[in-house]
Amino acid sequence: MTTEGTTDGGGAAGAEAAGAGDIAVDLELDRPHSARMYDYYLGGTTNFPADREAVAQVMAAFPTVLVTARVNRAFMHRSTRSLARQGLRQFLDIGTGIPTSPNLHEVAQSVTPGARVVYTDNDPIVLAHAQALLRSHATGRTTYLEADVTDPESILTAPQLHDTLDLDRPVALSLNALLHFVPDDRGAHAIVERLKAALPSGSTLTISHATPDFDPEGVARLAAAYASSGTPGQARTREEFARFFDGWELAEPGIVPTHRWRPDGPADTEGVTDAEAACWAAVARKP
To answer: What is the pTM of this model?
Structure first.
């Protein structure tokens, strides 16, 4: 199981963080953390001995997890770029993780400099790195909101969201590598339906999600390794994943493994199996 993010630094005009810079953050460096583990997978430096020990356990259980994380990140880049090229100018990224460059706003603003982005996470470790999320293009805007996806109303009613995005116009909602950390008993599908309902026609939904479909035993070991480090989750089948898009129109090529969603060229798929990708991915549009 993977979650988004690594690290960068800085800040810029047209950007703000809700609470960043004035809150003392306990980084709990003696305990493994999924965001810092993901940072390691992507080759980042914001990880510590406890994280690397947990990574070693995950890699022993699922040796290709580095491939899984990196092709998932590449999917985020491609899907964001595709949506920006289609004219989407507003992005809501929930479950942001520790930022890496290029992060979502950098990808979107490289196509549409005036793009406006709201990043959301409930993790104080992400808050500690929030300034890296705010390096907006001068003509665009990025904002960081501390909120929990399991409380969608806290996101949808936040002043920071409404100060940055116009919910009467299409919004590109991203839930990448997030929902496998929201098990059914926390209402994952109901949460997504609430978020979808708040967005107008023409909005889009982008999700990547761990699945047992290609390697049931390997993904079961992966989930157990994460649970042993204090991060439980739930991989979902294609059918369960497809339910997140109910009522919306899937974009081509539909539901596919992450590396097979509109690859830029053979290099995106060569040498990567569906079992190594271990995630479903899709983008859909609200009619």
So the answer is: 0.89
